[in-house]
């Protein structure tokens, strides 16, 4: 391996330049404000965690973890998601705070890229976790907040798909009779390989009714009517219960005025393996990957010895910024270009402009090599040059 | 309903077969449309836009979402392992992946060498067979490798077996049957659900009716 050139960065690492940074901040502030107004409190956790705790609990594949060794030789990871660190905090530093807890975060997470470029290895997430609440109200709150955040940030054309891991697992187990055979079909669904799923189902020694039930599962995508179609597959007691809960969830979402963009999709599987109940993803026009995703994870907290049901979602800031395109409502940049004899005047002008909220650069003329090039970067320039009084505005 | 779906297509023979399928499924595509040299072809009457790519690249375009749907060989899907939905077997361009070698080959070497255009498929397959092999990636004319001693065996697609035969190679093991598949980007699958479902269903009933013949 040759030494990197000075302009090179590790694969998947990106710089954020002013224009993108500002836009990102603006959108992020809108999102954070909304989450705070729903009573979520922001916390921060360390960038480095132990591989044995957070690394193991996280649903990110081991080969995607950035690992390093501490001075004692223990393996550390750069946090690959925020849900596992928050589960750790809730079970340790916040052990004595009673459930339910409403926490929020805004942090970069790190996932090494296996293949080519085009995807960042470090990206910023803003998200919430509602921990210690197992009811449909919690699910409605998380989904409604996610929908609200997408809307408030300015994305109008979007869809939120809601699936349920438990329902699908239960149905497969019920039809196939055992865990191993169900697991095989689940693997096809996880791999999004419907061709493999279909031909495998057709090979199984099942009644034609059961074969149809399994094939029908792939069509359970669409509006609220999908829940009735799902119940026509004759799920057992637990599955029926799930469908009832999803129906009431939909009603709650209507009350939140957040049902318009919701679709149900029982083929939705998340790559996050800790999800146990509903899972959901948000999609925006023109973006080829989910801009936000979340779900219920009722087992994760017990790994940190403070058992509780929980639900949460995370927003991908990079996709949000991309989805919002180049709508430019950036702050106007002003510059006061002055010479030494009028420094005092320039200072006064800068102070008053800054008090008005302006973004004002003060620049001594003698420190600029190419005045024309420099001036181009500003929307407004005030010249305080020479000994005459008054300013010229360009 | 007004959204135009972008469809990534492999250049060459599969494209022609796929265009024929789409026509039969009721998509009005202009005549002689498949003879164009353009890389992006619009078919506004059909509500489709085609991008023409190298077969190996089709799942890449679909995974990144610059194409909503695509047609890719199962060989490419196995090699690339992209995060896309494989929704329908189009049953066109049938062939299979196989291991081949010289008839008198000595396969008991300490470090057997395998040449292939599909290095992931090859190493995955031999691992599952409990064999440790060294895979050499080639981009074409794979049959050359055992003939001139670059590798002991090859992993490649076989359709008629003629190329193997003419070069004095024999098929040793079959790995998997290959046909072309309709693939879908996960976000598009939900954002443009009704258009994509419609396309998939039209293609499905066409493929099924052909099966019955």
UniProtKB/TrEMBL annotation, chain A:
This is ATP phosphoribosyltransferase regulatory subunit. PROSITE patterns: AA_TRNA_LIGASE_II. Transmembrane segments: none annotated. Gene3D superfamilies: 3.40.50.12590, Bira Bifunctional Protein, Domain 2. Belongs to the class-II aminoacyl-tRNA synthetase family. HisZ subfamily. Its main location: cytoplasm. Heteromultimer composed of HisG and HisZ subunits.
UniProtKB/TrEMBL annotation, chain B:
Catalyzes the condensation of ATP and 5-phosphoribose 1-diphosphate to form N'-(5'-phosphoribosyl)-ATP (PR-ATP). Has a crucial role in the pathway because the rate of histidine biosynthesis seems to be controlled primarily by regulation of HisG enzymatic activity. It comes from the Bacteria. Residues 54-204 form the ATP phosphoribosyltransferase catalytic domain. It is an enzyme of class 2 (transferase). Its EC number is 2.4.2.17. Transmembrane segments: none annotated. Lacks the C-terminal regulatory region which is replaced by HisZ. This is ATP phosphoribosyltransferase. Keywords: Amino-acid biosynthesis, ATP-binding, Cytoplasm, Glycosyltransferase, Histidine biosynthesis, Nucleotide-binding, Transferase. Belongs to the ATP phosphoribosyltransferase family. Short subfamily. The keyword Transferase applies. PANTHER family: ATP PHOSPHORIBOSYLTRANSFERASE, ATP PHOSPHORIBOSYLTRANSFERASE ATP-PRTASE. It catalyses: 1-(5-phospho-beta-D-ribosyl)-ATP + diphosphate = 5-phospho-alpha-D-ribose 1-diphosphate + ATP. Pathway: Amino-acid biosynthesis; L-histidine biosynthesis; L-histidine from 5-phospho-alpha-D-ribose 1-diphosphate: step 1/9. CDD domains: PBP2_HisGs. It is found in: Cytoplasm. Heteromultimer composed of HisG and HisZ subunits. Coiled coil: none annotated. GO terms for molecular function: ATP phosphoribosyltransferase activity. SUPFAM superfamilies: Periplasmic binding protein-like II. The gene is hisG. InterPro entries: ATP_PRibTrfase_cat, ATP_PRibTrfase_CS, ATP_PRibTrfase_HisG, ATP_PRibTrfase_HisG_short.
